[in-house]
Amino acid sequence: MALTIYDISRKAGVSIATVSRVLNGSDNVKASTREKVMSVIEKYDYTPNAYARGMGLHSLRTVGILCANSSDLFLAKAIYFLEQELHANGYESLLCCTGYDMNDVQSYIQLILSKKVDSLILVGSNFVSNSDEENEYIREAARQVPVMLLNASFNCHNVYSTLCNDYSSMFEATSSLIRAGIDDILYLYDSNSYSGTKKLSGYKAAMKSYKLADYAPLVHYYDGPTDRVDSITAFIQGIADHGITFHGVVASDDALAIGAIKYAFHNELTIPEDLAIIGYNNSMLTACCMPELTSVDNRLEYQTHQLVQTLLGVLSGAEMPAESIFSGKLIKRATTP
């Protein structure tokens, strides 16, 4: 394997940002440090790749963007914001839709890296596994280029995470219903990803904090297509038919919450008096139903802006924060008291 900027930083005992400054001819490097880095470069006959920017160092000014499914409303909107931000800053992008199979994900990453991109952006928390061993592919990619994560966090050198605090956001969403006098709150989720796990933990913590310990029968995983509202509605109906009563629904995604609205309609329940409902992501779906849906705004546009700004800083050799966290905001509409 060819020597990468990561290898140079390790062999020279300096940060990747310092190596980038040397490659870019920055004056903000001590002479002794510059000499140390250059000696490694000369010893191993290093040729700068696309990561090295400026001064004719062959950057393609291109960023690889990977997502699992571009038809997903959250991911599609994130990709749009990222491409707009990158283009405004003189960068083009290459997009791959990887699916959720980890072997396919790794194959696509190798494909993108072969195009000599300046960086990788992994959009969606599905890219970070609960198994540390399965995350080795992220470490390997980060040895070659900066890896930017949107909606997930991973502690690794040359990996930069931008995300919403899904735990506290879901805690507040659930708590808002409890404070309104609703204590039998159905929780619907469709993912065990990094983000999905944090949301579920937030719901559980809220129920526990209000001494509502018997919430286990109210937690349900929907393992079906989120673009099939009738399927979601039937899933909720099945829960009710098994004798589980609930007067509130908190969903990990707006699509699941739309299914709950349709369930209420079929059962002639009044919203929010008989059934209060909260979604998540504050997507366009919130205005595509009657009544309009209360949802958690995960500040996606702010997240994508921050991610690109962090990336630009890294590529210019600046020291940038490894993690940027935004607080979600509950946008109240007609489905909650």
Quick recap:
The chain is an alpha/beta fold.
Question: Describe it for me?
Answer:
This protein has 337 residues and is an alpha/beta fold. The protein folds into 3 domains: 1-59, lambda repressor-like DNA-binding domains (434 Repressor (Amino-terminal Domain)); 62-163 and 300-326, Rossmann fold (3-Layer(aba) Sandwich), CATH 3.40.50.2300; 166-297, Rossmann fold (3-Layer(aba) Sandwich). Helix content is 40%, strand content 16%. The protein has helices at residues 5-12, 16-23, 31-43, 73-88, 102-113, 136-142, 166-179, 194-209, 229-241, 254-266, 300-315; strands at residues 62-67, 92-97, 119-123, 147-150, 159-164, 185-189, 219-221, 248-251, 276-280, 294-297, 323-326, 329-331. The strands form 2 sheets. A 6-stranded parallel beta sheet has the order 2-1-3-4-5-11, with helices on both faces. Helix 4 (73-88) packs across helix 11 (300-315), helix 7 (166-179) runs parallel beside helix 8 (194-209) and helix 9 (229-241) packs across helix 10 (254-266). The protein is elongated and about 75 Å long. 46% of the residues are buried.
Number of domains: 3
The CATH H-level superfamily of the largest domain is Response regulator
Mean pLDDT: 92
Radius of gyration: 23 Å
Briefly note the structural class of the backbone: alpha/beta
Number of strand elements: 12
CATH class of the largest domain: Alpha Beta
Q: Please tally the helical runs, counting DSSP H or I stretches of 4 or more residues.
A: 11
Largest β sheet strand count, sense and barrel closure: 6 strands, parallel
Helix content: 40-55%
Q: What is the correct CATH architecture of the largest domain?
A: 3-Layer(aba) Sandwich
Please state the overall shape, judged from the principal axes of the Cα atoms. Answer: elongated
CATH topology of the largest domain: Rossmann fold
Q: Span from first to last CA?
A: 60 Å
Low-confidence stretches: 49-58
Q: What sequence of helices (H) and strands (E) makes up the elements?
A: HHHEHEHEHEEHEHEHEHEEHEE
Beta-strand content: 15-25%
Spatial order of the strands forming the largest sheet: 2-1-3-4-5-11
